[in-house]
Design brief:
The chain is an alpha+beta fold and 195 residues long. It has helices spanning 11-24, 46-57, 97-107, 172-175, 184-192, and strands at 3-6, 29-31, 66-76, 82-84, 117-127, 133-144, 163-165, 170-171. Strands 1, 2, 3, 4, 5, 6, 7 and 8 form an eight-stranded mixed sheet that branches.
């Protein structure tokens, strides 16, 4: 496959996908939608929501382009795997980045040590021109800090200021700037590209 249509209008995600794909396959083309579609993420799994996004944007892709949708979230086993697919709507409504951080810290206020273990998970769903779909996933293991590790929130990525990455022994917001770091989304992209 040498043409990818990324099913998002989120500029941060667009830049991230373009960088990740072109670093691995510099001769392919990466396209983005010009029009945003509101996709209701009411699936019970990351796979369902990622597929919903890919299918919703498929009508904007040209024949031969592989449509790529994703869904990501935070999983905290000590909280019965909350928030999972509901990370943005964890409190029962669409939350701002700052509200997610506050809600997470409040929900975990009585948890310490190993109970603060968490997983960042991304699932990519691809849909080709014939309607065939496939799924690819990646996970990042770590734990949630007891207070924000960074004063400024990375817009659209609130968990970056709370998540301590075990494999790099540093906060997620610092790990993403490390050339050898492979994020959960990047793991899924690499699987999608057969790397």
């Amino acid at each position: 496959m040498n043409s990818y249509f990324i099913a998002t209008c989120n500029k941060g995600k667009q830049e991230e996908y373009q960088r990740m794909i072109l670093e691995l396959l510099p001769t392919v083309n990466v396209y983005f939608p010009q029009q945003k579609i509101e996709v209701v993420e009411d699936g019970k799994t990351f796979e369902e929501n990622a597929l919903k996004k890919a299918l919703a944007y498929k009508k904007y892709a040209k024949k031969g382009q592989l449509v790529v949708g994703d869904d990501s979230g935070l999983i905290i086993p000590a909280l019965n795997n909350e928030p999972g697919v509901f990370t943005r709507r964890w409190a029962g409504y669409e939350m701002t980045d700052e509200q997610i951080i506050t809600h997470c810290l409040n929900r975990m206020s009585n948890l310490h040590g190993k109970d603060r273990f968490a997983v960042m998970r991304t699932v990519i769903a691809t849909v080709d021109s014939d309607g065939n779909s496939a799924f690819f996933s990646g996970e990042l293991r770590g734990h949630i800090a007891e207070k924000p590790l960074k004063a400024e929130v990375t817009k659209g990525f609130p968990v970056h200021s709370l998540f301590w990455v075990d494999s790099t022994n540093c906060p997620l917001y610092q790990a993403v700037d490390n050339d050898i770091f492979v994020s959960h989304r990047q793991q899924a992209v690499m699987k999608m590209l057969g790397q």
